[in-house]
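ingest -> validate -> predict -> emit
validate: passed (alphabet ok, no gaps, 127 aa)
predict: started
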Amino acid sequence: MGRKKIEIEKIVDDRIRRVTFKKRRIGLLKKAIQLSKLTDAKVMLKVYHNEDESLIEYFSHDKSDFDHINKNSPQVFEYSKFFNKHYNLVARLEEKVTRHGDPSSNMMEDFNFKKDLEQQIEGINMI
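emit:
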C-alpha cells in the first residue's frame, strides 16, 4: 500500500505545521548523514526555524574543512549552473505529469518543453 501524494503548500494549522516540520527536519538530517556516508561527500546542513528559534547543524567533516570551499570558484559555479538548470527541468516535468498524467501529451504548448527536455537529456548523456 503506497503513501498518498500531498500537495506542497504551506500548512495552515499551527500544530500540524510544527509536527510536520519536526518530522521532516529529522528526515532531512538522516538523508544528509546517509549522503555523506555513502558518497564521502562533505555535507554541511543548517536548519533554522523562526517560530521556535531552533537551529540544527550537521557537518560530515570538521567544520574548518568547509572554510576553503568558495562558492564563487569556477568549478563550483559550473556545477551549480548545470545542476540548477536540470533541477528546474525535472520540476517542470513533475508538474506536467501531475497536471496531465503523461509527460508526452500531444498538446501544442508542450512542443517546446519536449524539445528542451530532449536537448537536456542529450546534454546529460554527453557528460
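The two ends are 38 Å apart (CA to CA).
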